Amino acid sequence: MRLNFDNRFTRELPGDPLDDSRSREVRDVLWSKVTPTPVSAPRLLVHSPSVAAAVGFDVDDIASPAFAQVFAGNALIDGMQPHATRYGGHQFGHWAGQLGDGRAISLGEVVGADGHRHELQLKGAGRTPYSRHADGRAVLRSSLREFVCSEAMHALGVPTTRALSLVATGDLVMRDMFYDGHPAHEPGAVVCRVAPSFLRFGHYEILAATDETALLDRLIEFTLARDFPHVDGSREQRRAQWFRKICERSAELAAHWMRIGFVHGVLNTDNMSVLGLSIDYGPYGFVEDYDPAFTPNTTDAQGRRYAYGRQPAVVHWNLARLGSALLSQVDESDLQAGLDRYAAHYQTSARAMTAAKFGFDVLDDGDLALVQDAYELLAASSIDYTLFFRTLAGTTIPDDFAAHAYEPKKFADAQPLLTSWLDRYAHRIRETDAATRRARMDAANPLYLPRNWLCQEAIEAAERGDLAPLHRLLDATAEPYRERAGFGHQAGKRPDWARDKAGCSMLSCSS
Ligand code: AMP
Ligand code: MG
């Protein structure tokens, strides 16, 4: 097993002189050397063939017992330099101080055959100086969810970190799933995540919070050189452009989340990537009965700060926190221009995506009422968000939507609304070629999503040693826009049993 490592982060940026994984506050450096803590019986459950190929593994590498050992943290390949990085963050609106990679261990940066850079990062491989009081581990339940969603998001066309592997550790991990005083042992696992960069807003914020201005300057220059190589001009221009790009990418990301009904669940600034990737899959979910106030995260059930409909505003708030952290480094007017750009770019992106969802070539101002009324109709009728759009691509007959409603009474009461809305819609599309419209809609509206209840089925089976439901879910979500025979279960609306079940409608941050 040989990979082409080029570890720029650890080579070019200062690291912790202490070589000790005890929890502590780390200053004046960006990373700490760590060693993954071995596990007892690593077993590869699934891997992503496309990520493996991009990184440079062949079929024999993956089949070898060494692969599971390496991606459980029990062994290293030549060139790996395991380390944990230092970052802070705003959590639920408040500055939380030093957080850092408490259970993520980066192994290094691989340059793939295509020239792309792939940082490999284990999640759940043991304690680091940033673990605080926690154990540095992850359970199978949350690791499987992260693996599945990373790969699904990629297939959905949503910028995301990827996942190379999911390895069961053979060890048990103690978790209090609902923070209600009932801790229990659960099987442990390690995911290897892959991204061009795992830099988060919090990496910059911590340096501003501690007045480490020279190091902040260095980190920005590093980020520009490694992760934004096409940005050029004077120092001032490069930094202005850089912040603007972060704002634009974040706007596109938020628009995609809204398009597919994704709720991240924990949009703290330490969970925001400077590359505009979806990162840190925890208590995420997909909107089913349409409700902008929906959040699957029970930890946020009171405030609903990170509810579905609030995401575009929260991303803007997070960008403003990043902007504040950059005040010593980027001209204030450029920061403001970036934030303004976010709002404009979100509007443009969301509008284009909404047009495609409804099958229009562009969304005219005259369409806004029709679109707004559709969302009200969805809320009133309890029709599944995802299945509404897939169905609308093929029919404007009200009865064809009945099977996709969660509450028959609500659907019946909303029948007049539905009928009149479908009439207006039919009128709007009367001059659009049906095949063109359908193709446009089916490319914007996914059919197969890693809905929480599907993940839960895969988790419960995997915990019993049956990986078949996980493989079915991965197969379905690998091509989320193309309907295929045999995947009716994965295309279905949420079954009744999942409505109020833990892990399906309610998830906590415990992972
Ligand atoms: P999250 O809510 O998963 O984004 O994590 C927030 C912070 O808590 C990050 O600094 C994580 O590294 C840390 N953290 C979460 N779970 C653990 C764990 N089991 N062990 C150590 N650190 C953790
Ligand atoms: Mg996080």
Class inferred from helices and paired strands? alpha+beta
Give the strand tally.
11
| Average pLDDT score | 97
3D shape: globular
Report on the structure:
This protein has 511 residues and is of the alpha+beta class. It has four domains: 8-201, no CATH class; 211-358, no CATH class; 365-431, no CATH class; 452-498, no CATH class. Helices cover 41% and strands 13% of the residues. The chain is built from 17 helices and eleven strands. It has helices spanning 8-12, 49-55, 59-63, 65-70, 140-156, 201-209, 213-227, 235-260, 311-325, 332-358, 368-381, 385-392, 408-413, 415-428, 434-444, 452-463, 468-478, and strands at residues 31-33, 43-47, 83-85, 88-91, 94-98, 104-111, 117-123, 162-175, 184-195, 262-263, 285-286. Strands 2-8-9-7-6 form a five-stranded antiparallel sheet. It has a two-stranded antiparallel ribbon with strand order 1-3. A two-stranded antiparallel ribbon has the order 4-5. Helix 8 (235-260) runs parallel beside helix 10 (332-358) and helix 16 packs antiparallel against helix 17. The mean pLDDT is 97. The chain binds adenosine monophosphate (AMP) and magnesium ion.
Quick description:
This protein has 511 residues and is an alpha+beta fold. It has helices at residues 8-12, 49-55, 59-63, 65-70, 140-156, 201-209, 213-227, 235-260, 311-325, 332-358, 368-381, 385-392, 408-413, 415-428, 434-444, 452-463, 468-478, and strands at 31-33, 43-47, 83-85, 88-91, 94-98, 104-111, 117-123, 162-175, 184-195, 262-263, 285-286. The protein contains 17 helices and eleven strands.
